[in-house]
Amino acid sequence: MQSSHQTALETKHAVLDKRIAQENQRPLPDAMLIAELKKQKLRVKEEITRL
Questions:
Q1: Where are the domains of the chain?
Q2: pLDDT score of 51
Q3: CB-based contacts of 4: which residues, under 8 Å, 6+ apart?
Q4: What whole-number distance in Å separates Cα of residue 4 and Cα of residue 2?
């Protein structure tokens, strides 16, 4: 059974994934922003894995 916390984390992970994809589509993507978003996404994934 999935908890609401896990569902929220999975939603946050998907949102971060979308933001990374959107930033990569820009004519001049911000590499620093992409790196930070990827770090956040990894932290969320690690937390999901621990659950």
A1: 4-50
A2: 87
A3: none
A4: 7
Residue pair 37/23 in contact (Cβ under 8 Å)? The answer is yes
Contact 16, 41 (CB under 8 A): yes
Most distant pair of Cα atoms in the chain: their distance: 42
Query: How many Cβ atoms are within 10 Å of 45's Cβ, its own excluded?
Result: 14
Residues whose CB is less than 8 angstroms from the CB of residue 47 and which lie 6 or more positions away in sequence, other chains included:
9
pLDDT for 32: 98
Task: Compute mean pLDDT per 10 residues along the chain, 51 residues long, and list them.
Answer: 90 98 97 98 96 87
Query: Contact, 16 vs 40, CB < 8 A?
Result: yes
Give the Cα separation of 41 and 46 in Å (integer): 9
